């Protein structure tokens, strides 16, 4: 009878130990689940409230720009965006410009140029850039239809690019740096 009591006691202790282990495992699983949810919320909040650095975005857009040789030969309309690292409006407009670029990808060339970089001086001269940001809208033959200098609202940018893509008259008239002179900027390179 004593053995049977010892077995029961041992089995009861073993069951309690198992229960403790199961409880620990549940707590660990709950902690992991809560940590995962918290990490996801933090990641979302970080991306929502601290979007990618606008200057990095501008540089990425410049690196991913349609090559100038393609702009001259593919017959598509082109938006050329001149920016500078120090330009606050350029940084403000970068996310909108990226959105519009993605929306019209394949139909319109987008070229982003650092207008303050000496290696781009020829382009700055050809496009008659005298203020940054300077956004030029060209037809497929290299004719500059208009240009905007300064902060451009996203909806204006979208309407302008949409008309350009559809080969329609542009709804907004911006800066005319050419004033009676030839508007073709080809060859670009």
From TrEMBL:
One example GO MF annotation: oxidoreductase activity, acting on a sulfur group of donors, disulfide as acceptor
Keywords: Membrane, Transmembrane, Transmembrane helix
Family matches, as Gene3D superfamilies: Glutaredoxin (3.40.30.10)
Species in which this protein is naturally found: Fibrocapsa japonica
Protein name as it appears in the record: Thioredoxin domain-containing protein
Keyword Transmembrane helix: yes
Transmembrane segments: 30-50
Superkingdom of origin organism: Eukaryota
Domain Thioredoxin: 57-166
Entry-linked PROSITE patterns: THIOREDOXIN_1 (PS00194), THIOREDOXIN_2 (PS51352)
């Amino acid at each position: 009878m004593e053995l049977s009591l010892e077995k029961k006691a041992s089995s009861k202790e073993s069951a309690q130990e198992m229960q403790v282990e199961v409880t620990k495992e549940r707590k660990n699983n709950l902690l992991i689940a809560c940590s995962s949810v918290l990490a996801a919320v933090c990641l979302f909040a970080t991306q929502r409230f601290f979007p990618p650095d606008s200057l990095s975005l501008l540089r990425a857009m410049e690196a991913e720009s349609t090559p100038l040789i393609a702009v001259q030969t593919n017959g598509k309309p082109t938006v050329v965006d001149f920016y500078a690292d120090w330009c606050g409006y350029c940084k403000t407009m970068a996310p909108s410009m990226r959105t519009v670029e993605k929306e019209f990808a394949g139909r319109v060339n987008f070229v982003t140029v650092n207008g303050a970089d000496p290696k781009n001086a020829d382009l700055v001269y050809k496009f008659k850039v005298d203020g940054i940001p300077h956004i030029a809208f060209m037809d497929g033959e290299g004719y500059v239809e208009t240009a905007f200098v300064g902060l451009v609202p996203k909806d204006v940018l979208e309407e302008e690019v949409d008309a350009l893509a559809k080969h329609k008259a542009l709804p907004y008239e911006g800066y005319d740096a050419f004033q009676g002179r030839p508007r073709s900027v080809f060859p670009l390179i």
